[in-house]
Design brief:
110 residues; alpha/beta; 4-stranded mixed beta sheet; 22% strand
């Protein structure tokens, strides 16, 4: 399938940058590793590799996921040419993300 980027930057009709945003933490609310969440990030990164543009950025609102991805990049298990950054959200937006995340946990908790 095709990856839909959260942002694309064009200059003179040519793609020069792509951005993806992840709002996931690596650790679940139960303290376990979020393997499914991480596998989605892996898949997104591999699709980004196939995109022909000079700048590829994956921004994270969750510092634990950012730390996991960076450690995998350092170990050579993820593409090193994708820039990974922490995105600091405004307080009201961060609160909204946390509320939505809490609701999603309730939906999947038996």
């Amino acid at each position: 399938g095709a990856l839909e980027y959260d942002a694309r930057v064009l200059r003179d009709g040519k793609l020069i940058a792509v951005y993806c945003l992840s709002c996931s933490e690596y650790k679940t609310t139960g303290g376990k590793s979020g393997a499914g969440k991480f596998h989605k990030i892996q898949g997104d990164m591999l699709k980004m590799v196939g995109t022909n543009c000079p700048l590829k950025v994956l921004a994270f609102t969750g510092p634990t996921m950012l730390a996991k991805v960076r450690s995998e990049q350092i170990s050579g298990r993820l593409p090193p040419d994708i820039q990974c950054e922490l995105a600091t959200l405004p307080p009201e937006l961060q609160t909204l993300v946390q509320q939505v995340s809490a609701l999603s946990v309730e939906e999947v908790t038996p």
